[in-house]
Structures are given as structure tokens and as C-alpha cells.
Amino acid sequence: VLVTGVAGAVWLAAGAAPAAETVKIGFNAPLTGFAAADGKSALTGAQLAVEQANADGGIQGKKLELVVYDDEAKPEQGVPVAKKLIGQDGVKVAVSGSYSGPTRAAAQVFQDARIPYISAYAIHPDITRAGEYVFRTSFVGEVQGRAGAKLIGQTLGKKRVVMITLQNDFGQSLADGFKEAAPRFGLQIVNEYQYSIRDRQFGPLVSKVAADQPEAIYASGYFFTAGPLVKQLREKGITAVVIGQEGYDSDKFMEIAGPAAEGVIITTSLDRDSDVAETRSFITAFEKKAGFGADMVAASAHTAIKVAVAALRKAGPDSPKAIRDAIAATRDMPASTGAISFNELGEVMKAVQVQVVKGGKWRRHSVIDDPVLLAPPTK
Amino acid sequence: VSALLLLDLTVQGLIQGSMYALIAVGLTLAYGLLRVLHVAHAGLFTLGAYLAVLATNATGSFWVGLAVAGPLVGVVGMAVYRLVYEPILHRPPFVALIASIGLFICLEDAFRLVFGPYGISFAEPPISGSLRLGPITVQLAQAATVVAGVALLGVLAVVATRTRAGVAWRATVTDPQMARSFGIDTIRVRYLVFFVGSVLAAVAGALVAVLNNFVEPTMGSVPSYKMLAIIVLGGLGNLLGTLVASLALGVIEAFGTIYVGHLLDRDAIAFLFLVAVLMVRPHGFLGRA
Lengths: 379, 289
Fold this sequence. Notes:
The complex is a heterodimer of chains A (379) and B (289).
Chain A: H1 2-16, E1 22-29, H2 36-55, E2 63-70, H3 75-88, E3 94-96, H4 100-113, E4 117-119, E5 134-136, H5 141-155, E6 160-166, H6 169-181, E7 188-195, H7 203-212, E8 216-219, H8 223-235, E9 241-244, H9 251-257, E10 265-268, H10 277-290, H11 296-315, H12 320-328, E11 333-335, E12 338-340, E13 352-358, E14 361-368
Parallel strand pairs in A: 1-2, 1-3, 3-4, 4-5, 6-7, 6-8, 8-9, 9-10
Antiparallel strand pairs in A: 10-13, 11-12, 13-14
Chain B: H1 3-34, H2 41-59, H3 62-85, H4 93-115, E1 130-133, E2 136-139, H5 140-162, H6 164-174, H7 176-181, H8 186-212, H9 221-233, H10 239-259, H11 266-280
């Protein structure tokens, strides 16, 4: 497998390089299936970054081209998509705009072929452990979970917490980080419940949470699970503050939950009220291109492509090794999701943005900038 | 564990069960008559939800939304019978099953292409708010689900037992040839069954749309397999059995998600229950041995 992958890449590089008029960046996202909404946002964010780079001169006079494959957010699609990008399309750098399942599988293929690969928002810790060619521009779940514990225990001063955990790698790693940091902030975890990503009806769970009478609810999920959940919690008469994460981070969340969304607080990486020029211009440009408000997924894909573009400009479009070294050397690069630097494992180091729903919009609540608490894993 | 919580969980289970019943009845009707496992029924459920939201948002009235979604989906259900099942009825049953699964997948992708991948919501959610029944709070939309379930299935029971159409339907299920020789138009009975079942699915879809305030292309994927478990539990083709199985499954899931949810997810609990029941009663709750 490894040999054919590498051989394919070498053959294509030799055969296609002289004729190539564009510089290709590989991109995989769930364009169909249950995660198609996130796939569309991620793709739009990535396309925006490519258009901006092309308007800005491309790479050494050549235009950038985004080579896109649908992975349906299915783990079994990760390997074939990665092999197509490397073998057929001969990309020298690629970005995952997808979930952890396919990203994790693809990461190993890219590592084996020595092609740099950047995960935009997939959070499984094993992704960057594939090796030195794999990077991540978003927080691992544990980091965001620890930030959530600090937010509830210290910033909000609440102690009795019920956890509602999504049964997938996203929910699980958030829960791990949250539970690890909870004692440090004096949190008492009354109960933890699990739900499946297919669930939209939370009647029994909501009844049990009402009986638990928590001060705060730490609920992991995506806008399409969290929207119905928060609506049902509030209609049950539960007033405890709900803390979510970047999975909520879409205007669709307010559209679904309606007035129930008010006061929900999340940890994420996009600050709607940012005064950083990079973030402001992204929010405006995205809304113009997409016709709907920017979300975390779009901003993350935009950020990851931007990191790849900066590396291509520095290292040239031909050597994956040089591109990898340029990515690894990224220091405080301004992007829509913050100033990007990587640690030795390829994990991003940046502040966590805390947003709250006010008047039906995401607004800034606070920022958690605590390098010790937020330190990503190094191995 | 307080008695109040147990009562609350039971109520939540029965609400979920009413929803399952509304969806599963159409499947039971189709199976009882034609021995076809109509998986694409779950696609009609989603279609009903989309049409209800779109028509409600366009007119501002949920009643108009229901009035549009119900009959339209009923007609689509009849078309599915005519165009997909009728031409292959003489083939072995798995042919129709595979055709149905294929149709369901096509429908899911069609929803994504036509209505977009993001899903849609009501601009002004109808039946929002909640209702206090003594110490228990339920969403108004949940109460509406139970009312709709009882009312529609009640009407169905009356029609089946007290009207000519109902007699024709039961006669056709029991012995199609004999029914035909007595002058019953068995083809019309088939259209009627698909119409009624699809209307019920559309109503269920509209109610789920209200409960979640969210309709997405893959909304039918869980019902597509869970309703199979329900009709098997109910003793394939048995209407009363389907009702009992729906309510039982709702209650089992309600307690299961709370007390063994950290071990098994909701679907695993449902199918474990199915296996357990079939070990004791191989023909379902009310199935004939």
C-alpha cells in the first residue's frame, strides 16, 4: 500500500509537473450524507481562501486550484480519497474539511506518502499522531473541554454540572478534557448522559436533567443536535445555563432553537465581534460569497487553506518536504480563527473564543487565553 | 429514583411511541396487503415534513401546511405503489424490498439537492411552548402528537370496522381472490391503503418538524429501520400489534436511554428489545403463531 502510494505520487509528479499550469491543493469534505451542511460550509470557506490567494497573485505566478472530493464523513472513504488526491491529482499539500473519521484514515495515507495534510476542524487526537506531515489548525477536543470547565467554574462561577455527551469522538474527547479539568475549577459533575448523533428527540433525557436540577449543562453536539436539544430543554422549563462548543457554531443553531438559544454560551474559534482585520474581512467576504453567515467550519477551512498557501508561497509548489517545513515553521500567522502557530506535534496553539447568543446572534462573551490550561498534546 | 421521574419518563416514552405508531401504521398496512416491506415510507415521512414547513412558512398557517403536506404525500404514496411496486409484485418479495431501499436512498439525495444540505426550520414555530399536567411538563407539540395519534388511529379503526371501504380492505387482506369475486375493486383498495398510510407519515413528519423545529434530508434514516423493528414486534401486518409495539418501544427507549445509555445507544436498546421479544414470542406481541 505504502509503496504503490509513493510510487504513484512519484510517477504522477514526473509525468504531470511540466504540463501543470495550476498549483493544486487537495481538499476532502462531506458534501453528501448527514454532514453535508458542514461540508458545504467548509468547501465555501476553502474556495474563498483560494479565490483570495489567486486575486493576490497566486503561487509564483501560477493560479491555485482546489481539488475537491466528497468523503461523506465516512471513515472508509478517507483512504480512497487520499489516494486519489495523491496518485491521480498529484497534490503536494492537502486540507481536510471533514470530520475525524475520514480525516484520521486519510492522515496516515498522506503521512506514508510524505505529503503535508492539514486538518481544519476534525478533532480526534490521533490525527496529528500519524506523523510529522500532519497538522491541525483547530483545537483538539480535550483542549476545548478544559476551556469549557474553566468557563463554567471560574468565569461563570457555577458548580453543579450535568454533562450531555455526544457518542462520537468529538463528544468523547470534549468530555475527557472537561472531566480532567473539572476538579481544578471546583465543578461537581452530577450526572453524565450520552446520546447518538442520530437523535433529535431528547424527551426522556430532558426529563432526567430537569430532575437533576443542575446549575449548568455541558452539552456536546452540532447545531443539528444541539438546536433541538436546547429547544426541548427550555420548553421543559429548565433554565440552567447551557455550555456548548464549536459544533454549535452556526447561525442555523439560532434558526432551529429560536428564542431558546438566547444565553447559550460556546467555546469556539471564530469571534464575531473581533477587531482583528483578518477575522472581520473573512466574516464580510464569506457572507457575500455564501449568502449566509460565517460559521466555525467555514472559518476553519479558510484558515487551513491560508496556512497551506503561505507555505506554498514560502517553499514553492514542488517539494512536499519544503512545504511541510514551511507549515511547521508558521508563527503567529493572522487568520480568521486567530494567530496560528504549531507545536512539535503539529497542533495549533491559540486562544479559545467564548461566544454567547444575544438578540439571536453570536456575540463575544470572553476569551480564554491560558497557554498552560490550553496546551495541546505534544506526542 | 422518584416516582415522579418514573411517571415523567413513562409519559415521554408514550409520546415517542405515538410518533412511532403514526409512522409505522403505513408500513404495516402496505405489508399486510401486499407483503412488501415499504422502506421508502420513511422518505415520504421526510417529504411530509419538508412540505409542511415550506407551506407553513409560505402561508403563515400550520393548518395550511398540514393540509398541503397530507394529501400531496398521500398522492405520492399512491404513485410509489403504481410506479415502483405494481410492476414487480409478481417477483419474489426481496425484489420489492430492494427497489424500496433504492427509492429511499434516491429520495434522501433528492431532498438534499432540491432543498439544500443545511435543513430548514419554521420561520415562526407553530404549537410552541409547554403544558403543565399536574407535576409534569410536556411540550405542547408533544401533546399535539399524542392527540393526533389517538385521533387519526381512532378514525382509522372506525373506518376499518364500520365502513364499506374498511370491509373491502379487510376482505382484500384476508383473501384477495374471494374479495374480487364479490365485486370488490382490490386495486382501488391498494391505492387507498397507500394513500392513508402516506398521509399518516406526512402528519408524523410535520409533527416531528415542529418538535425539533428542524427538517433535514436524512430525517427519515432512523425511522427507515426502526419502523421495521416495530412492525416485526407487532406481528407483521397486525394494526393493533403495531400500536402496542410502538408504545412499548417508546417506553423501553425512554428508560433505556437514561439507565443504560452509557452502555448502549437508543437504537441498540430498541433492537435488543426486539431480539428479546422475538425469543419469547417469535410472531411478535399479537402475531398469529
